[in-house]
Design brief:
Number of domains: 1
Low-confidence stretches: none
Shape: rod-shaped
Number of helices: 3
Strand content: under 5%
Helix content: over 70%
Mean pLDDT: 81
């Protein structure tokens, strides 16, 4: 019985392919109640699988994006710390130069 239903569903499932031009009504119009119910069960499960795959893909893409942002943020913080250190060195050098210049003028 199950093989019979699956065999009857295969042409219907092909109706969802991009290459086929039949409407859903044309594909399902001649189905008996058992095949119609089986079609809906298979269709709902297929949609569920597709949704799950889309969610997993979105989750992975989001994870990659967040990781890239975290890496970029870390690099920016390191660059700011390096600039701060260079600024402090320049400030110290300037202060020493001014003090040396003041001593020489005396």
């Amino acid at each position: 019985m199950k093989l019979y239903i699956i065999a009857r569903l295969c042409p219907v499932l092909e109706c969802h392919s991009v290459l086929d031009v039949q409407t859903l009504a044309e594909c399902t119009g001649s189905m008996d109640a058992t095949t119609w119910n089986a079609y809906h069960i298979v269709s709902n499960r297929a949609r569920s699988v597709c949704y799950s795959i889309q969610q997993q893909r979105f989750r992975k893409q989001t994870e990659v994006a967040v990781n890239k942002l975290a890496d970029s943020t870390l690099r920016q913080l390191q660059a700011v710390e390096e600039i701060e250190n260079k600024h402090q060195q320049l400030k110290d050098f300037t202060q020493e130069s001014l003090e040396a210049s003041a001593i020489q003028q005396c």
